[in-house]
Amino acid sequence: MNFSVREFEMLCPRLRDGLHFSVQEQGGDRVCVIEDPSSSRFFRVGVDEYHFFRSLDGTQTVASIIARRARDRSGDTFTEHEALQMLRWLKDNHLLAVESDRATGKSEESRRAWKSAVTWLNPLVVRIPIARMDGFFRVLARALRPFLGWFGFAIWFGVVLAGAAQIGMDWSRFNRGFTGIIARDNWLWLGLIWIGLKVLHECGHGIFCRHFGVRVREVGVIFVLFMPMGYVDATASLGLASRWRRIIVSCAGMYVEFFVAAIAAIVWASTPDGRAATLLHNTVVMGTMVTLFFNANPLMRFDGYFILSDLLGIPNLATQGRAWFMRAVSWLLLGTRRLRPERPATRGQWIVALYGIAAWVWQIAVFAGMMLAASVMFRGGGLLLAVIAGVVWVATPMLAFARQIAASMRQGTGAVAGVALRLALIAGLVALVFFAPYRKTVVVRGVVEFGDTRIVRAECPGFVDRIHVQDGDVVPAGELIMELRNEEAASALMKARRELDAQELRARVAYLRRDVAEYQAEFARADALRKALAENESYLATLKIRAPIAGRVSTRELERMPGAYFQRGEEILKLGQAAGREVKLAVAQDSLPHFKAALNRKVAVRIDGRGDVFAAQLERLDGNASRTSPHAALTALSGGPLPVQRVQDIDGASAKQEQERYELADPHFGATVRMTSADAASLDDGELARVKFRSPVKVTLWGETRAAVGRWMRKYGV
Hints:
Blueprint: H1 5-8, E1 20-26, E2 29-36, E3 41-46, H2 47-54, H3 62-72, H4 80-92, H5 100-103, H6 105-121, E4 125-131, H7 134-143, H8 150-169, H9 171-176, H10 187-211, E5 219-224, E6 227-232, H11 243-269, H12 275-294, H13 303-312, H14 317-334, H15 347-377, H16 379-410, H17 416-435, E7 438-450, E8 454-457, E9 462-467, E10 474-475, E11 480-485, H18 487-512, H19 516-541, E12 544-546, E13 551-554, E14 565-566, E15 571-576, E16 581-587, H20 592-597, E17 602-607, E18 613-621, E19 644-646, H21 655-659, E20 662-664, E21 669-675, E22 688-699, H22 701-715
Antiparallel strand pairs: 1-2, 2-3, 4-5, 5-6, 7-16, 7-22, 8-15, 9-11, 9-14, 10-13, 11-12, 13-15, 16-21, 17-18, 17-22, 18-21, 19-20
Helix pairs in contact: 7-10, 8-11, 10-11, 10-12, 11-12, 11-13, 14-15, 15-16, 18-19
């Protein structure tokens, strides 16, 4: 269709059959939404344009329509040029029933086929339509109608509030459940729970669509990293006149997931630890945190995006933001004022510009994360998948953008030399960001201990009988701290004394008989029993635990010790300098060069829960790595940062040895930081701390990224 101003006035264009129109409120203005059911596309136009389009019935000429509107509106109507532009827009979007649509059908079909092929070639995201289930959702909407209003919301709110209260009251137990949640043996259960929740999620969208009278075109499945995710084509809800109904449809999936997660939380609170509690915990996490991260994220074209778009009253927010960003990039490359994007002047324009930038950054991060996840989950095959996805998602759009830039240059917009210079500057900036050396800030978690700490261990096994000190008491050297009780050792000592008395009696009898040989033999045996008795008395005396040095008592389990049993060599408590404090660290292998360079240098120590920063010095670094944690508080079992793994069980192990069944998942180097600040004397033993310093070793962002990827891949055995 090649219009000229003179020709188009005599045309009698007609809109295609089957188009749906609805008037809505958008940002305080009334707009019309045109729905094209054949292509599942929606268009927003002004009310004046809507009235003009509805007049295109094939029986009136464009000139007569313009004349009638000018008469009805006292001359306030569209110009001939504006009418021509609107007709061209209708033609380009295939909304006119004209013969030229057939002429362009092959090219449009080719374009759609290529786009579909590109989509199917992407192995990381595959969308497969399955069925049309509009009737199924209509039946569900009728059956659940009493629960789709305020009454149902009140029930939903009460259940969610009860579930949140249960988790809040038992948060420490719920927090422990995160340990090992992404372990390999939990992947299957997470996947099954994920599928179940997403089926309910999509049912929520479909039910509320039918509740508000809009049809559901199709349902299907999307495979993301070969993990199935259901979808419901609820695009017809965009034609709803009320934006609050559109928002309800967008929230419906998360609404259902939160309800299921709340029920799981209530049941979890009364379920003892085990497989059932783990599955319920997984359901709560997947139905709340994971759902909020993905579905409520406005930077992804999921539920959160449509909610934000309707709340702000900015239709096609992603399209407008992408257009602004691409125009800004084109202007930076070509340097012409004609392509320079307009500086945002209104609130809406600022939102569009900032959204375009944020969405681009998020897409880069998601793409990199999905490629990394594919390479980790599918080993070598995942690397091939990542390469294919990179070609589909990066190379194809970049090629299209390059063609657009080349077309602009052929039209005289920008010179080759200028574009090359700007590309070189951008490449230089990227290289500067990734390869410029800088001094890294190293932060490591640690635990505060008293300086020059001595560990007091049980020399003779026994039960705790009496405790003469309290946690934090300052005691002199030799002070009696605790008394243990060992009935078996005491009975053995009494038996040894009776044997010695009997042997001495036999020696005296031999002496009175003047039998020298027998006397010497009996005396030798008595002397041996006397030495053994002295050793037993000395050994039994160790049941009285005394302070080996002057210092402060440090143990948080002292109140629970009465009646506890300690084996020989088992730790009872610690004694440390009353004034000095140290921080024990576990240093990963990647951080070892930084700690070696910072040895005997000043560092800063920040105590968790306190705002003060204490001066300290890195004093010692072990030469060999070990899987033994320097302190139990640093392990994941106690909420610390170091993951652990189970080692071989010990038969008849004590409570202390039960904790020692675990070792660090990766070897770490022990390090000691001595706190030089005088205020450090107020710190308690066992407080968690963060040690921070600027490393003398320079690194690059590229090297740090490679190291992070290497740690990730080693963690999952790639």
